[in-house]
TrEMBL record:
Annotated protein name in UniProt: Regulatory protein, tetR family
Sequence ranges assigned to domain HTH tetR-type in this UniProt record: 4-64
An example Gene Ontology molecular-function term: DNA-binding transcription factor activity
Top-rank taxon: Bacteria
A matching Pfam family: TetR_C_33
SUPFAM superfamilies per the UniProt record, alphabetical: Homeodomain-like, Tetracyclin repressor-like, C-terminal domain
Amino acid sequence: MRVGLTAERLVAAAAELADAEGLEAVTLSALARRFGVRPASLYSHVASTDDLRTRLALLALEEQADRASTALAGRSRRDALVALADTYRDYAREHPGRHAAAQLRLDAGTARASAGPRHAAMARAVLIGYAVPEPDRTHAVRLVGALVRGFVDLELGGSFAHSEPDAEASWRRSIDALDTLLSHWETA
């Protein structure tokens, strides 16, 4: 086994590989080649490719949550909504492979122990500024997540690359529309 090989180093290398070549390129074989070792040498650090990708998802969720937390500090309502949405979009553009990893389905225990609950708490905090009542906040959190993730995933996939107006204009209009909707939220 190569000296200095750790789970953390493997996850960092997996993150770089995912961003450069896509999440599907992240395999134990690919990392073994990168480190000049046999794939079997990695099993003392990670259990499988799925385990490696789960660890990558956890890293991405943590990085995103840290960025969002910093961006949200001292902001409310529309400013907070824009900061939250822009943080996720910017992260996805800078780290497309990590963004893809953050979308992986985690088992319930892993999800609860991840930064995922921080994401939900931040989205819920943004909604407090809009006075969305508690029984409806979960619906509103899901709406915000669906708009942001859907737009970002379509943009990363090239869906907006060949039409006018540019994606930036549509992004701003979408966030404006979401702000208007949240400002006038009606309970059922």
